[in-house]
Amino acid sequence: MNGADTLRPQLERWQRRALVVGVVSLALCAGGGWMSRGQFFQSYLLGFLFWAGLTLGCFALLLLHQTFGAGWGFVMQRTLEAGTRVFPLLAALFVPLLFGLHDLYEWTHAEVVAGDPVLTEKSAYLNVGFFTGRAAFYFLAWAGAAYLLNKWSRELDTSGDPRLAGRLRNAGPPGLLLYGLTATFAGVDWIMSLEPHWFSTMFGLILIVGQVLSTLAFVVIVVGRLAEHPPPDKVARPQHFHDFGNLMLAFTMIWAYLSFSQFLIIWAGNLPETITWYQHRSTGGWQWLALGLFLFSFALPFVLLLSRRSKRRAGTLALVGGVVLGMRLVEHFWLVAPTFRPGLTVHWMDLAAPIGIGGLWLAFFFYQLKGRPTLPQLDPRLKEAFADEGH
Asked: Is residue 46 within 8 Å of 337, Cβ to Cβ?
């Protein structure tokens, strides 16, 4: 079942291409930063948030898989594990943002905080030192948990010790709790505090659902390509892509429900400190982007994913995944950019920064993916999971 040698040349080609694209794009952004420092950090934050969400989604789905051990989870396990091993790179990519806090977050300006009673009250939480310390804790927690999951998985590959399988399964629930808390606070720190007067208790959950949805979209693309080569082609069956499609459909509906519920509650409350956030995103052309999110993040995927035939075809499902993944980037743009721009405008760095960060992310991801067998080897749950599905 070890397809590392078979897939290695293809993965290495993808790795080299991604690295070249990433380095060139970020070099262009660095040049653009000399001319427009503020725009550079806005675009860089956009790209970082998108790829951080994808990494966290890999972490969440891996924990979910280890908890339940279904057949679809084993098909995507190596993809998810490789995604979680990108956390050290993600921490390094976060460092440039520390030099742009003053350009991004108004609560870093002492004179602004002194003249604003709301920010004064929040200053115990919203300050540069505590912000940086929390970020360090998030990355340590994520990377540490991912290290253990990958370490135990690798040991299980060589020993087949059922105690390791039990350890992985038992790590799932507390790991999901850790993920839920840290991902929520990270969303508050990195996105919500861009407009620190605004608050929503549903915002963290919306981000979490979106992260899982991004990862599912990414997984159907990657697994679909890997399934063109042995040995994944012998294991990744139409039923598994059907399961992926059902999960995408479920999380698409949950994301739409939570997003609309947040809007409805804030609209009904009509409080100045909360309604202004939506006002910034529903005027000046931003309303058309919001409409696009509804049509292409919910309506179109919802209709396509209702079809059993579409879900069982890897190529068709990958196209849907591409649309979903692209719209996840658009949603992050809609979350971040209106804070700084009264009208809908797109700067070239808004595209170059996500591409640059994504190139480095993908290069590191493919490097990690080629280093291990493409399927679990001796997990005692593997045979049972596939037997239950009739394979």
From this structure: yes
| Alpha-carbon gap, residue 368 to 86, rounded angstroms | 8
Instruction: Look up residue 232 and give its two tokens.
Output: 């994944």
Q: What is the pTM (predicted TM-score) of this model?
A: 0.94
Question: Which pLDDT score is estimated for 80?
Answer: 97
Evaluate whether residue 387 is within a structural domain: no
**Domain limits at 248?**
4-374
Would you say residue 383 lies in a domain?
no
Long-range pairs for 114-123: beta carbons < 8 A, 24 or more residues apart? 118/196, 118/197, 118/273, 119/196, 119/197, 122/196
Amino acid at 379: D
CA 249 to chain centre: 17
Distance separating alpha carbons of residues 260 and 311, to the nearest angstrom: 26
Q: What is the DSSP letter of 333?
A: H
User: What does pLDDT average to in each consecutive run of 10 residues of the chain (391 residues)?
Assistant: 65 95 97 96 98 98 90 88 97 98 97 95 97 98 98 91 91 96 98 95 96 96 84 75 94 97 92 89 95 96 93 91 97 97 96 98 96 80 62 49
Number of residues assigned to the chain:
391
Q: Is residue 284 part of a domain?
A: yes
For the chain, the domain total comes to 1
Peptide bond into 231 cis (omega under 30): yes
- DSSP conformation class of 49: H
Q: Are 79 and 358 in contact (CB under 8 A)?
A: no
385 inside domain: no
- Give the span between the Cα atoms of 380 and 366, in whole angstroms: 27
DSSP string for residues in 55-92: HHHHHHHHHHHHHH--HHHHHHHHHHHHHHTTHHHHHH
